[in-house]
Amino acid sequence: AQKITQTQPGMFVQEKEAVTLDCTYDTSDQSYGLFWYKQPSSGEMIFLIYQGSYDEQNATEGRYSLNFQKARKSANLVISASQLGDSAMYFCAMRERTSGSRLTFGEGTQLTVNP
Amino acid sequence: DTEVTQTPKHLVMGMTNKKSLKCEQHMGHRAMYWYKQKAKKPPELMFVYSYEKLSINESVPSRFSPECPNSSLLNLHLHALQPEDSALYLCASSQTEAAGRSGNTIYFGEGSWLTVV
Fold first, then answer.
1. Confidence check: pLDDT of B106 > 60
2. Exposed, middle or buried, B79 (CB in 10 Å: 0-12/13-18/19+)?
3. By percentage, how much of chain B surpasses pLDDT 70?
4. Please, are residues B11 and B115 in contact by the beta-carbon 8 Å criterion?
5. H-run or E-run covering B85
6. Which residue of B has its CA nearest to A91?
7. In sequence order, what are the beta bridge partners of A93?
8. Class of residue B14 by CB neighbours under 10 A (exposed 0-12, middle 13-18, buried 19+)
9. Three-state DSSP state, A45
10. Which residues partner with A36 through β-bridges?
């Protein structure tokens, strides 16, 4: 079974609007972390936001917020006020305590922001 | 700007060449990683170094040879590669190898685009 599922291969959004990128995960660990990365066409993998399994509040970093629903095992990324520079591939990833340094990635969502 | 720097940005090499990819970080991190990423796919872990010792080798072919000369540097030596090895190679680092409750975020570099001809 897939450990990280991103069901949206591609998403489109108008500039200045908000967009939600979906991520569901599967783990039996009680302790785990969820990450979102942005990868523009240049190749750099940019860390955006982190949510720990024990964190009670949803993580926020500037225009990025993580909608964490532990019971549903979902960790959706919300980007507010989209900008043209947000066009990129977005990966959801999980790090389980029992897997140590291994990050499990989803297949990614290609976001296009239209002017 | 990323604090993990990789050189070269682009590399074209023949199947008989020997070349190296280099990675440097100055965040005091003690775990460093090499990932391989094919087009439109997520990155795949190749190697992990922890405190300058090889911790994980994900059954990578011996034509890829990692080296960690010190806590800030990580190299990937390439020899007798195949065209299917053409990919984006990403270096990354984190405070330590262990996951930890704080997440111990893995930070990536800009990547090295490798083409084998």
1. yes
2. middle
3. 94
4. yes
5. none
6. B42
7. A35, A105
8. exposed
9. coil
10. A49, A92
CA distances from A30 to A36, A71, A96, B93 (A): 20, 12, 8, 24
- Of B5, B111, B98, B104, nearest in space to B51 by CA: B98
Please report residues of B whose CB lies closer than 8 A to that of A100: 97-99
Position B65 pLDDT exceeds 90: yes
Show the tokens assigned to A75.
Answer: 């960790």
pLDDT in tens, chain A (115 residues): 679 999 999 999 999 999 999 999 999 999 899 999 999 999 999 999 999 999 989 999 999 999 999 999 999 999 999 999 999 999 999 999 888 788 999 999 999 999 9
Q: How far is CA B47 from CA A26, A58, B75, in A?
A: 24, 32, 11
- Tell me the sheet residues that pair with A34: A51, A94
Identify each DSSP E strand in A1-115 by its residue range. 4-5, 10-14, 19-21, 24-25, 32-39, 46-52, 60-61, 64-69, 74-79, 88-96, 104-105, 109-114
**Minimal Cβ distance to B45: which of A52, A102, A106:** A102
Q: Quote the CA–CA distance of B59 and B106 in Å, as a whole number.
A: 21
DSSP strand E in B1-117: where? 4-7, 10-13, 18-25, 31-37, 44-50, 53-57, 64-70, 73-79, 87-94, 107-108, 112-116
Closest residue to A101, CB basis, from B48, B101, B103: B48
